[in-house]
Specification:
Helix content is 56%, strand content 20%. Helix 9 packs parallel to helix 12. The protein is of the alpha+beta class. It is elongated and about 105 Å long. The chain has a six-stranded mixed barrel with strand order 4-5-12-7-9-8.
Length: 403
């Protein structure tokens, strides 16, 4: 009887193919939207995690912070300086490396081309700590630092902006603040940081050259600290804080005028943010599933009205209320599950299309598939109960008399 009831339900849907398709359309769009949105959120979370892991989970970032003056927070009261770098490099026991950075927005010129980019002053350990590789040439070393040589390593995007042949740029001379710099290398592409800025559109010069030839200041934009082990990150934060507080002459009750950030915490913050947006967008997409469910209930009520005589005939031949109820529930569930399957294909195709054509990071999560299909089935069951009960409750004599 169950299989016979399902066949009757399917034949009823085939009899009105266009109406059945239009009824399923709301479910198809809803499920497709849920799959695509969740895939975008999952892909963004994985991309952020990969970028943070590539930088190292055992790294800390030290930057200038805010100071409270008469109850008002203000920047610039203190800064991270070269003395802080020297003190950490000499005294910290839990750090493998300390990489200082200065940052200035300057024009880099090559012949008739120029670009306004961020020029970093740093030390030779920059490449190892930040996990960067050279595409062409070499990175500057300690002799370049000691001699304060005017040498520069370009990011891959910057090299492409300055010349049509970036592989030939090594050995050429560019001008930074009217000072000639010899290009000694080009960094390999690294992409964007969290989708906010490109690390390939930069120029890197020795810190000593930046201090004495470019900025004329001991002020640093940040310090990157590489801890011996990820398990010692918390102890390293305490050690670095103690050393910098002493260098800044801060008393026991004084607030820190600098920030020490753990990149693991940064990854967690990014993931929580993307997860929140994914849940929000998925919730909006689920609303379209509810709208599709209302459409199914409407069509099923119309179907009950159109097939009143058929219901009377079936009841007169011995069909029970349970048979009629199951038949219409089967029709509603079939509409929703077919719509869910088509929506799954649509959503997965949309995720692949965004990844291929728009270079977005997407990942279709199995949990999202189960959620969307389960919700679609729940919608069919919920919105199919009322029409099915109405059909089952029809009096056979009144149904046979219905015109």
């Amino acid at each position: 009887m169950i299989w016979e009831t399902i066949k009757v339900a399917l034949s009823a849907l085939r009899a009105n193919k266009m109406r059945s398709f239009l009824t399923m359309l709301g479910i198809i769009i809803g499920v497709g939207a849920v799959i695509t949105v969740v895939a975008m959120g999952e892909g963004a979370q994985r991309a952020v995690q990969e970028q943070i892991e590539s930088l190292g989970t055992n790294q800390l970032t030290v930057s200038s912070g805010w100071r409270m003056h008469r109850g008002v927070g203000a920047a610039g009261g203190a800064f991270i300086g070269y003395d802080d770098y020297e003190a950490l490099a000499a005294e910290a026991q839990l750090l493998l490396a300390v990489v200082p950075e200065t940052s200035n927005e300057l024009q880099v010129e090559l012949l008739n081309r120029n670009a306004s980019v961020r020029v970093l002053g740093t030390v030779p350990e920059y490449v190892a700590v930040h996990n960067r590789e050279l595409q062409y040439g070499r990175f500057f070393g300690q002799p370049d630092m000691v001699a304060r040589r005017t040498v520069v390593v370009l990011g891959s995007s910057l090299a492409s902006r300055l010349t049509d042949y970036p592989e030939r740029i090594v050995g050429q001379t560019v001008r930074i603040r009217a000072i000639p710099f010899e290009v000694i290398g080009v960094l390999a592409p690294a992409g964007e940081m969290g989708g906010f800025f490109s690390v390939d559109d930069r120029a890197v010069i020795p810190l000593s050259t930046a201090r004495y030839r470019i900025s004329g200041s001991d002020r640093l934009s940040s310090l990157t600290l590489e801890v011996i082990s990820p398990q010692l990150v918390d102890q390293a934060v305490v050690e670095a804080e103690r050393i910098i507080r002493r260098e800044h002459r801060l008393g026991p009750g004084d607030q820190n005028d600098f920030d020490i950030r753990n990149r693991t915490d940064l990854a967690t913050t990014f993931q929580e943010t993307t997860r929140t947006f994914s849940v929000l967008l998925a919730g909006i997409a689920l609303v379209s599933l509810m709208v599709g469910g209302i459409g199914i209930m409407n069509i099923m009520l119309v179907s009950v009205t159109e097939r009143t005589r058929e219901i009377g005939v079936r009841k007169a031949m011995g069909a029970t209320k349970r048979n009629i109820l199951f038949q219409f529930l089967a029709e509603a569930l079939t509409l929703c599950m077919l719509g869910g399957l088509f929506g799954l294909l649509l959503g997965a195709g949309g995720a692949v299309g965004l990844s291929y054509f728009a270079n977005w990071n997407t990942a279709v999560a199995p949990a999202a598939v189960v959620l969307a299909l389960g919700f679609a089935a729940g919608v069919g069951l919920f919105f199919g109960i009322y029409p099915a009960r109405r059909a089952a409750a029809l009096d056979p004599i009144d149904a046979l008399r219905y015109e």
